[in-house]
Structures are given as structure tokens and as C-alpha cells.
Design goal:
By secondary structure, the chain is of the alpha+beta class. The protein has four helices and 16 strands.
Length: 252
């Protein structure tokens, strides 16, 4: 009888022991990566980069602050921005573009440092899908990326935005741009088009690949990462064709 009584209380002992084991708390954390600095044709300084969510909770309104310094390490200015998308799921990235509008200050900047501030958020449904993506250069030598956003949710996707992150061959972010689907309110089971433009031929020529993400007031998407850029692929194919033609002419 004593053994039977002992066996009956084992589950309660185990339950009490498990209750004493502390549970791992969810953490909110993020880091800045792949950042680069650029002064555009009118003298405005840009710091492009992306924030990676290294925690295990969703984030929202992620703020990035840059301290700009001159050649003597004196502070020139302190500027900030937010990631180009509001929401940031765990283990994902969102781009940013910090801008120094004062061209006199921009010209003095030699180095910078950045810090990131995060806020926890409730997850939203990933019901937007980017599809039919293509890219080309326009007559100004600027890259244009076109595609469609499909709403696979049950409600209208309101103010649907598409954000592009553009990388060079080393993986550095060299441009960030955004646009809205047209029209920006996408009904359920519908697709609306978009066009993102890189408004610089110099930046366009540095781009090796890009990533697109759609977000609205109620939905977001899984990022759509491009293969090596279509424009570069076309140029390479034309070069190969020219070499083949020369060899063919030589051997004919």
C-alpha cells in the first residue's frame, strides 16, 4: 500500500519540479548590417543599410540613429530614421535610409556610428505575395523594377507599399526605395501593379541583386529576393554572343 501511494504522488512531484524551472523569456533585439554611405549628385548624404531582427519576437517602429563625425572625430550631426517597413518578424531584415539634408554638413562627414532602438509588436498575417517581377534600365540609365502584389487575405490590403533593398556584389546596401501599389488598396484575391525606381545611374551600375517586400496596414509579405539582376544577365549574354560571333567569323 505504501508503494502504491508513492506511485500516485509521483506525477505531483514531477509537476512541482517543472513549475520551478524558469521559462526562457522572449527577447527583442536587432542589429544593423550591410550599411554604406553615399553622397548623391546634389550633395545630400545617405546612409543605407538594413536591420536584422536577431530576437524571437516581432518588432515594429525600429529606429536607427546615426552620429556623423568629421576627419577629427568631432560630431557633425546626429540624425535618425525608421526602417522602411513598420514590421520586422524574427530572423528577417528591413532596410533604412538615413539622410543628412544639410549639404555643408554632408561634405564634412568622414565616419559615422549607428545605434538601433526596438519595440515589440504583435505579429500580423503574411498574406501579401510579390509576383511577376521584372527589371530594366530606362533612358536615363536608372533601374526600374516592376511587378504585382497579390492579396491572399480575407480583407482589403490598405495602403499597400512595396519596399526595395538594393545590394552590390559584396552584399552592401547601396540604395533603398519604395512605392505604393497602384491602386494602393488591394481587394482580397486581387493583384495590383507597382514600379520602383533607382533614381541614379551611378547607383544602378553598382546593383547586383535586390530584395522586395510588401506591407500594408493589416498584412505583410515574405521578402522576394531576386536572382542576379536581370539587367546584368542581359548584358552578360550580349557579351557572350559578341565573343561567339567574333570566333565564328574568324573560323569561317
Amino acid at each position: 500500500m505504501k508503494m502504491k501511494a508513492f506511485l500516485l504522488i509521483i506525477p505531483f512531484i514531477l509537476a512541482g519540479s517543472l513549475a520551478c524551472v524558469p521559462l526562457a523569456a522572449a527577447t527583442a533585439n536587432a542589429v544593423v548590417q550591410n550599411d554604406s554611405m553615399w553622397i548623391d549628385s546634389v550633395g545630400v548624404l545617405h546612409i543605407f543599410g538594413e536591420v536584422k531582427n536577431t530576437g524571437d519576437v516581432w518588432l515594429r517602429y525600429v529606429q536607427i540613429t546615426a552620429t556623423l563625425r568629421d576627419a577629427s572625430s568631432s560630431i557633425v550631426d546626429v540624425v535618425f530614421t525608421f526602417t522602411s517597413t513598420d514590421f520586422l518578424p524574427p530572423d528577417s531584415v528591413a532596410p533604412f535610409n538615413i539622410v543628412e539634408l544639410d549639404t555643408a554638413k554632408s561634405a564634412r562627414v568622414q565616419t559615422y556610428s549607428v545605434v538601433v532602438e526596438v519595440h515589440e509588436a504583435t505579429a500580423i498575417a503574411q498574406k501579401l505575395v510579390i509576383m511577376s517581377v521584372g527589371d530594366s534600365k530606362n533612358s536615363l540609365g536608372w533601374l526600374e523594377v516592376v511587378g504585382e502584389v497579390e492579396n491572399q487575405g480575407d480583407a482589403v490590403s490598405t495602403y499597400t507599399e512595396v519596399v526595395g533593398t538594393f545590394y552590390d556584389a559584396n552584399g552592401k546596401v547601396v540604395y533603398v526605395s519604395f512605392t505604393f501599389a497602384s491602386p494602393s488598396d488591394v481587394p482580397p484575391a486581387s493583384k495590383h501593379g507597382f514600379k520602383i525606381t533607382v533614381s541614379s545611374d551611378e547607383r544602378t551600375n553598382q546593383i547586383a541583386r535586390y530584395s522586395l517586400i510588401a506591407e500594408s496596414q493589416n498584412y505583410t509579405s515574405v521578402p522576394e529576393l531576386s536572382a542576379p539582376m536581370l539587367v546584368a544577365g542581359i548584358v552578360l549574354s550580349m557579351g557572350v554572343l559578341a565573343v561567339w560571333k567574333k570566333r565564328h567569323d574568324f573560323t569561317s
